[in-house]
Amino acid sequence: MTKTTNENVAKAWTYGNKAVNHSGAYHTDGENLYSYSLRIGFTKGSKKILLDYTAGAGHFRSMTTSGKHVSPARYVADVVMNPSVIENTDMAY
Fold first, then answer.
1. What pTM, to 2 d.p., does this model score?
2. Where are the chain's structural domains?
């Protein structure tokens, strides 16, 4: 798989394509979006749902996850959701 920018990883996710960034830390299989091994986005029907792993949402994980991975996906996701909404549900994984 060709390595690309973080912005292009987010775009590939919205189109259902595989992509990985230069370090391999941010990647998508087209259905799910990952920051390291943390699933930060998923597909439900035709909608792309981003989990808001940021300090503002109360779910900060790291500066990289918040700023470099969640941030570019925010502009292409259909829905941005607080991760606590899906905890302990079948949508969690």
1. 0.87
2. 3-85
